[in-house]
Design brief:
- The chain is an all-alpha fold.
- Helices cover about 85% and strands about 0% of the residues.
- The protein has seven helices and no strands.
- Helix 1 packs antiparallel against helix 2.
- The longest helix is centred in the first third of the chain and has 33 residues.
Length: about 180
């Protein structure tokens, strides 16, 4: 997924540049972009089917259920990066619903739990990148970060390391996003 998403971002940037220049290769570029989008859509739909048909219904532990629901939201988010029109609106709503359901399940986990933190990290990225709502993204990330900071005492070393890594990503995003908000 990562390689295809990176390829899609790259070819989209090239397409924008070549459209501006009026390139004779524009149709070739558009065709390649379309091919990548079809591959991405197929992969996402396959993963979403696996999540919906097998993984989520059979998840018993809270952390497993949160992980799979977060993953479901992530794959709908990936579709929202390139789909357009009504399809895009649908996958965005599906992503939002999945993240919300995961968040409800995550209330059964400690605020420092790495899966709970990664849920908020990805959900805040969704708000920032897909919904263009940096204020909500910042609020969500800051609340999770502050709650986790308050509960850091008593964590085991392995859990502390995982949580600290995700908290650093939350903080990095907050710093970047707050800077963007202040520039506006």
């Amino acid at each position: 997924m990562s390689a295809r998403r990176a390829a899609w971002r790259t070819i989209s940037a090239i397409q924008n540049k070549e459209e501006y220049k009026g390139s004779k290769y524009l149709e070739l570029i558009k065709g390649y972009r379309s091919k990548i989008e079809k591959e991405l859509e197929t992969i996402c739909q396959d993963v979403l089917s696996l999540l919906n048909d097998q993984l989520i219904p059979n998840a018993r532990a809270a952390d497993a259920k949160v992980f799979y629901l977060k993953m479901k939201g992530d794959y709908f988010r990936y579709l929202g990066e390139f789909l357009a029109g009504d399809k895009r609106k649908t996958v965005i709503q599906d992503a939002q619903d999945s993240y919300k359901e995961a968040n409800i399940e995550a209330e059964n986990l400690k605020s420092t739990h790495p899966i709970r933190l990664s849920l908020v990290l990805n959900w805040s990225v969704f708000y920032y990148e897909i919904l263009s709502s940096p204020d909500i993204a910042c609020k969500l990330a800051k609340q999770a970060f502050d709650n986790a900071i308050a509960d850091l005492d008593g964590l085991e070393e392995d859990e502390n390391r995982d949580s600290a890594t995700i908290m650093q990503l939350l903080r990095d995003n907050l710093t970047l996003w707050m800077s963007d908000l202040n520039d506006v």
